[in-house]
């Protein structure tokens, strides 16, 4: 029999996560405890339950710029070796508990230097934490593999340096590179040197584009920078028109994204919080899935959105009526788009994802 499409059973499904920020996924209790340990006094409230509510409400601003301000508190408690390792370890544990079998988690090393650590030391401690979390999950009977994406802040001038860092650690757990931060006024083309370096090194990268800014951001990320994936990319719908009779007309850029199978790292709850879309009902995930874009389901920031992969999938089920076969397709889309070797991606699809969903589909 087919399993019911509720949160309990969705948690049992094997899931793949491509867009998750390390500094956006801390446990509220961890934020409070690390703040006490490192002497950070800037938290708006201290009780974990109140802190969780504060992050969620503060992130519900409808503005990407205001949304990003909440990260000042999480980054502040991630400036020590112990803090970095703990946050990374708990990230892997929490994702595994939610049924995630493969995840690519990103963070910006340049934001974690206030305690005197070097960029290399920051990455070392985070990677150690991921390995500890994988081992802890395995001991609990859950398998997960976490790859790390190193992010450069698009308003800063360290992208080439961070790209070199990503390549330096590519055989030690770092699987790719990214740029993030406010889009308006900071186009991807400002960081061409970094992207050219990544391409010259045959290394993977994704670019936050098409979230708070529209088609020009997406076009630059693809045409000028050569991105492998689009972080969000939700504004590709600016190039898609749906007539009153339901007829769909796509522009050149939308056709190109679909034809080239460029993955869209869509984050439904976050996209509403940042004002990229007006509401979940207005989210283009349903349209893009129907048009067979390579859509993937992601969390973005689990703390700020009070969410998980299972909850994001349930939101899509309840909003668009997706079934188990749809969730399997989105999961395979994500695994196909991961930044690890092809044979390893195929093994996860054939040995974990398809058998896992077969049990649920019946």
UniProtKB/TrEMBL annotation:
Keywords: Hydrolase, Metal-binding, Nucleotide metabolism, Zinc. Zn(2+) binds at residues 19, 21, 208, 300. Substrate binds at residues 21, 23, 181. The active site is at 211 (proton donor). GO terms for cellular component: cytosol. The keyword Hydrolase applies. Residues 14-354 form the Adenosine deaminase domain. Belongs to the metallo-dependent hydrolases superfamily. Adenosine and AMP deaminases family. Adenosine deaminase subfamily. Catalyzes the hydrolytic deamination of adenosine and 2-deoxyadenosine. This is Adenosine deaminase.
